[in-house]
Amino acid sequence: MSGDGARPALTLDGSTLCPGGDSDFDRRRDEDPMNPDEFSALAVGLGPSVHVKPILEAVQFRVGGKAFATLGWPATGWAVVKVAPSRQVWALSLSAGLAPEPGRRRKSGIVLMQLAAIDEAVAVDLLADAWSFAHRSIAPRARGTAASTGRALSA
Q: Which of 1, 65, 114, 130 has fewest C-beta within 10 Å?
């Protein structure tokens, strides 16, 4: 990190995710940056169905076996959430501290979050949306099980 307070650029697959210097990406609306512990507490706080799974240096948050967020990826101080691809443009509009994943998965709903550049409200909105998307993707199996149970009880 240079003495002028600029963050170093993070490069993933040849794409720069965080320009340094005085860019909007480096600025925060409030003075207290989000930290990994706060992000983790928000993710776990979404409900008792959230499971935490450590993976190497990162922590994955899952619901029904589906990952909806990962903390510590692609680097320390970052997180990633998976929203519905149709919601990605909305998600990216919430803060300059967000970026799509570079490469072929750029439009697949994966949103990179520089924690120090987002506020709690943005993190809450994204985590809730990502949790909902993951939960909906497991719902057909759960509905199938509930439906068959309901038929057995009503017979």
A: 1
**Per-residue DSSP letter, 8:** P
Residue 97 resides in a domain: yes
Does the residue 80 lie in any domain?
yes
Query: Domain span at residue 59?
Result: 32-139
Q: What is the Cα–Cα distance from 119 to 123, expressed in whole angstroms?
A: 7
Q: Which residues pair with 58 in a beta bridge?
A: 55
C-alpha span between 51 and 54 (Å, rounded): 10
As for how many domains the chain has, the answer is 1
1 in a structural domain: no
- Is residue 91 within 8 Å of residue 78, measured between CB atoms? no
Q: Is residue 58 part of a domain?
A: yes
Q: What is the pLDDT of residues 74-131, one digit of tens each?
A: 999 999 999 999 999 999 999 999 999 888 778 889 999 999 999 999 999 999 999 9
| Whole-number Å distance between alpha carbons of 34 and 40 | 10
What pLDDT, on the 0 to 100 scale, is given for residue 7? 37
Question: Rounded to two decimals, what is the model's pTM?
Answer: 0.71
